[in-house]
Amino acid sequence: MTEAKLAIDIGGTFTDVVLEQNENRWTTKVLTTPSAPEEGVIAGIQDVLEKSGLQSSALTLLIHGTTLATNAIIERKGATTALVTTAGFRDVLEIGYESRYNQYDVMIEKAVPLVPRYLRLPVLERMDVHGQVLTAIDEASLEKHIPIIRDAGVESIAIGFLHAYANPTHEQRAAEILAAALPETSISISSEVCPEVREYERLTTTTANAYVRPLMEGYLARLETALNEMGFKCPVLLMTSGGGLTTLATAKRLPIRLVESGPAGGAILAQQIARQSGLDKVISFDMGGTTAKICVIDDFEPQKNREFEVDRQARFMKGSGLPMRIPVIEMVEIGAGGGSIARVDSMKRITVGPDSAGADPGPAAYGRGGEDATITDADLVLGKINPTTFAGGKVSLQATDAAAAIANNVGQALGLEDSIAAYGVCEIVDETMSNAARVHAVEQGKNASEHTLIAFGGAAPLHVGRIAEKLHIDRIIIPVNAGVGSAIGFLRAPVAYEVVRSRNMRLNAFDPNLANEIISAMVSEAEEVVNAGAGGRPIERRISAFMRYFGQGHEIVVPLPQRALLHDDRQILQASFDCEYEKLYQRSLPNAEVEILTWAVTVTTAEQKIEPLAALPPQAAAAPIEMRDVFDPVLQVKQAVPVYWRDDLSVGATLAGPAVIAEDETATLVPAAFGAMIAANGNIVIERKAV
Fold it and tell me: Is the CB of residue 317 less than 8 Å from the CB of residue 231?
């Protein structure tokens, strides 16, 4: 049967839509409609359906990723939320780790909790760490809060009791009582959202889920209705932050798992390209209209984590944001996109971002009333962008408006003419992104210069050459349809779901029956989600545990036997822990006691087989379609540079920098020190010229 798959990626500025059928692909970029995101989605879908000539009923799968949940948390535009928690623990959201992310800054600003104190409502109940009831839930102490919730106009409730991961019965009973009294109110419980130890992270994750759930449920319901009206009959899957796909029903219930869904799609695309090209050290660089995302991928696997932060108050500083405990692909994200706003501060320095002009009004060049200078305006002034073909011609850029914004916001304050001011803006943002990539690699014990850059997103190909120069990187790859790269990554992602559950167990008291009971329940939960979206494809499972030496504060991931556990497996678990611990720390502690803190099960559809890329001999040099004046940072003037149209370049075609390779959704700037060739799969491979 012929598959026709559709992918949708909503960003802060553009909504990207990709339709694939066999070897054919149709793409489009439309401006995001912030007040009603489904309108931009529908417009993009109609565009690609018209281009392809397909009917909506012919599609076999629709995959969607979005930053709506993240933006709602950062912009504080979620639901009015209450937290019901164990008496004595209402201030956990304020206390946090009892530490300061910058201990010497007396003016430090911590991330503001999503729930104000007057809506953190205590209930008399208590479980111990093993799930034994110490104090039965006092239902009267819960019911007295119902008028408060109703009078405050609460739209969503988070329930998080102490040690509910070990025994969820009190949370479940509280949810029953509140649902009966407040049937229109959304309810999230921590034993479903984040059944893990560490109450601060568990409560922040659960409150965040509650905070965005009405917004996401409403949006997904409207989108589902619109798709049905358009005649769609295919399954709808959502991209998760961990790089897998999940069902629409699960996404509505646990929208917190979608907060990094767009960037995760980009990492999946880079992973596929790395495997096909045989590159075991790559850095993915995704720069769109609002943010830039950087991910280190070694040995063909992006690093994954169980925790990340949203709404950091200090850029790059761990501990300054709200911690979320969900499966996530490890990456660094900064406010540096085409719409990032540039200005001159009180010390006469150019600063860029993290705020963005977004889609409305957008950069000044959009001609929609924006007056702030942005990176897109600077790129246009420097000659990098053709104003008539931007976003496939859907957005006609106004060069005079861009130049005026650069002059008014940057040039006049520093006494610089427009081109130099625009170059200063680009140089600042390129240095910011280069430094982020450098620091991110160093934090993982890697050297950025040893990697290949894979760049995608509407703005990344314009800036990646300069970033490669700053990082001393010799090779860059620009994928086919790089401007909608994350959406293409959605189409390569497996249907996958991870279940994590804390239940403490020391190895010297290993109980295989209890362990098998826990794992079996987790496997059933994960398989139910995956089978709903797998379409009959074979599935695989991975079982692991988070283990540590007794008394340590953090755990490491240890793979477990993929079968029912036996009593004699205690020695296997000990050996596996020692092996993983030595990989990280070059030693183990032979006489120290080991404990399992958390169990994890991942169920996923089998990986697609990827054929290696064929090597090609270079062919004749390509012919440009025009010459364009582009700013030369060395000569400090504009000079004529050849412009090539990407669709005209055949496999094996070569060209020398400086040059511009234009296409519908983006353009690639090849620096003077580099040359480019079209690989067998159509990707642009840019390599430093031999000296």
Answer: no
Which of the pair, 482 or 189, is modelled with greater confidence? 189
593 near 506, Cβ under 8 Å?
Answer: yes
User: Is the confidence at residue 243, as pLDDT, over 90?
Assistant: no
Residue identified by tokens 């007794």 is 550
- Is the distance from CB of 29 to CB of 665 less than 8 angstroms? yes
Residue pLDDT, tens place only, 557-603: 999 998 899 988 899 999 999 999 988 888 888 889 999 999 999 99
**pLDDT range class, residue 14, cuts 50, 70, 90:** confident
pLDDT greater at residue 312 or residue 645 = 645
> Would you say the C-alpha torsion 477, 479, 481, 483 has a positive or negative sign?
negative
Check whether residue 112 and residue 165 sit in a common domain.
yes
Q: Judge if 321 and 360 occupy the same domain.
A: yes
DSSP 484: G
Structural domain ending residue among the three candidates 142, 175, 207: 207
Same domain, 468 and 431: yes
Task: Look up residue 537 and give its two tokens.
Answer: 């494809």
- Output the six-digit token pair for 567: 């009593």
539-549/594-605 β-pairing? antiparallel
Rounded to the nearest angstrom, the gap between the alpha carbon of residue 386 and the centroid of all alpha carbons in its chain is 29
Tell me the backbone φ, ψ of residue 392, rounded to 5 degrees: 70, 20
Whether 395 and 416 share a structural domain: yes
pLDDT: is 264 or 318 the higher one? 264
Same domain, residue pair 513 and 410: no
Whole-number percent of the chain with pLDDT over 70 = 97
Q: Please, are residues 624 and 644 in contact by the beta-carbon 8 Å criterion? A: yes
HEC profile of 65-76: EECHHHHHHHHC
Tokens 């070694």 sit at which residue?
298
pTM given for the model: 0.87
The DSSP-derived string for 268-306 is: HHHHHHHHHHT-SEEEEEEE-SS-EEEEEEETTEE-EES
Q: Are residues 484 and 423 part of one domain? A: yes
List the single range of 70-74, 85-89, 528-532 with lowest mean pLDDT.
Answer: 70-74
Q: What is the pLDDT of residue 622?
A: 80
- Residue-averaged pLDDT of the chain: 88
On whether both 242 and 279 belong to a single domain, the answer is no
Residue type, 594: V
Is residue 613 domain-resident?
no
Single out the residue of 99, 96, 90, 77 nearest to residue 155, CA to CA: 77
| Structure token digits, residue 63 | 């995959």
pLDDT at 84: 97
DSSP letter, residue 319: T
Q: How many domains does the chain have?
A: 5
Whether 447 maps to a domain, the answer reads: yes
- Residue 169: strand, helix, or coil: helix
Q: What is the mean pLDDT of residues 365-382?
A: 88
- 345 lies in the same domain as 445: yes
Question: Domain limits at 241?
Answer: 4-73+218-258
Label residues 211-225 b or e (16+ Cβ within 10 Å = b): bbbbbbbebbeebee
Calpha distance 40→30 (Å, rounded): 7
Determine the straight-line distance between the first and last CA of the chain, rounded to whole angstroms. Answer: 52
Beta bridge partners of 334: 292
